[in-house]
């Protein structure tokens, strides 16, 4: 009842874009038809409420007594999800990856049962994860479910912002970094993309800056990128003023 109450309270606060994304996934979970997608991607810049949608979905599914798995590409991001853990922890993704890597999770274990029982898998900060990790999870779920559909036919919701950090490739070129994203793999064609555009975090006075950030992130700024004036400190030596008890001349010498 507590989970359902949290879900109901959150649903009342959703805007139209968030509500659409939530119910699109819920319908796939509980009212699935053959023409519905099973793989979803929630796209949106920072502040558009992606995490709020994830939390509402998790509460709604768990409120019905069903299993919902929440993972993220980083430990910090996982802490913002109810019951969240890192993707590597849940799926036992190997640290060293290649195109044929497999997860180190064995069938007929308690960890495997959790995955089998899950009605939905939510994966935050997906753009940071190398496509080889997704392929390993895809193989794992297909093996566990004995189903050849993408991710074993499981309902999966990925989310994040490709305008932010992509997978970190050691000594990788720009093209190699981009090609390591799931968006550049054939697996991406199985995903139904939902977009959030309304910034729920920025105050009215900050919306111009939020719009500017989005403009830059979309690659629409062809001119030299300059920070707005209010991004500059009014004081001439901010470091010295912040650490006024330090004698910088002595430090320099």
Question: Can you put this structure into words, describing what you see?
Answer:
Its cofactor is Mg(2+). It catalyses: ATP + H2O = ADP + phosphate + H(+). Belongs to the helicase family. The radius of gyration is 21 Å and the shape is globular. Strand 2 (67-72), helix 4 and strand 3 (85-86) form a beta-alpha-beta unit. With 253 residues, the chain is α/β, with parallel strands linked by helices. It has a single domain, classed as Rossmann fold (3-Layer(aba) Sandwich), CATH 3.40.50. The chain contains 11 helices and 6 strands. A 6-stranded parallel sheet has the order 3-2-4-5-1-6. The model has no long low-confidence stretch (mean pLDDT 89). The termini are far apart.
In short:
The chain has 253 residues and is of the alpha/beta class. It has a single domain, classed as P-loop containing nucleotide triphosphate hydrolases (Rossmann fold, 3-Layer(aba) Sandwich). It is built from 11 helices and 6 strands.
List keywords for this structure.
single chain; 253 residues; alpha/beta; Rossmann fold; 6 strands; DNA damage; 5'-3' DNA helicase activity; ATP-dependent DNA helicase; DNA recombination; EC 5.6.2.3
Topology:
Elements: H1 2-11, H2 16-30, E1 39-43, H3 50-63, E2 67-72, H4 75-78, E3 85-86, H5 87-91, H6 110-117, E4 118-124, H7 131-145, E5 156-160, H8 174-179, E6 191-195, H9 207-217, H10 238-242, H11 248-252
Parallel strand pairs: 1-5, 1-6, 2-3, 2-4, 4-5
Helix pairs in contact: 1-3, 2-3
GO molecular function: 5'-3' DNA helicase activity; ATP binding; ATP hydrolysis activity
Protein name: ATP-dependent DNA helicase
Domain DNA helicase Pif1-like DEAD-box helicase: 13-223
């Amino acid at each position: 009842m507590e989970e359902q109450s949290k879900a109901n309270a959150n649903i009342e606060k959703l805007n139209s874009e968030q509500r659409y994304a939530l119910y699109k996934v819920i319908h796939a979970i509980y009212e699935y038809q053959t023409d519905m997608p099973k793989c979803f991607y929630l796209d949106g810049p920072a502040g558009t409420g992606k995490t709020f949608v994830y939390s509402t979905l998790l509460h709604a599914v768990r409120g019905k007594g069903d299993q919902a798995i929440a993972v993220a590409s980083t430990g910090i991001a996982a802490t913002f999800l109810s019951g969240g853990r890192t993707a590597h922890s849940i799926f036992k993704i190997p640290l060293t990856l290649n195109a044929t890597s497999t997860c180190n999770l064995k069938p007929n274990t308690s960890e495997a049962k959790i995955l089998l029982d899950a009605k939905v898998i939510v994966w935050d900060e997906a753009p940071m994860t190398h496509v080889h990790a997704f392929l390993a999870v895809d193989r794992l779920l297909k093996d566990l479910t004995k189903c050849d559909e993408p991710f074993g036919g499981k309902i999966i919701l990925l989310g994040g912002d490709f305008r932010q950090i992509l997978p970190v490739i050691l000594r990788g070129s720009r093209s190699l970094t981009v090609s390591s994203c799931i968006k550049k793999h054939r697996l991406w064609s199985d995903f139904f993309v939902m977009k959030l555009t309304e910034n729920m975090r920025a105050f009215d006075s900050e919306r111009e800056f939020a719009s500017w950030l989005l403009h830059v992130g979309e690659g629409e700024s062809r001119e030299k990128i300059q920070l707005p004036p209010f991004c500059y400190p009014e004081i001439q030596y901010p470091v010295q003023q912040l650490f006024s008890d330090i004698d910088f001349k002595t430090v320099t010498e």
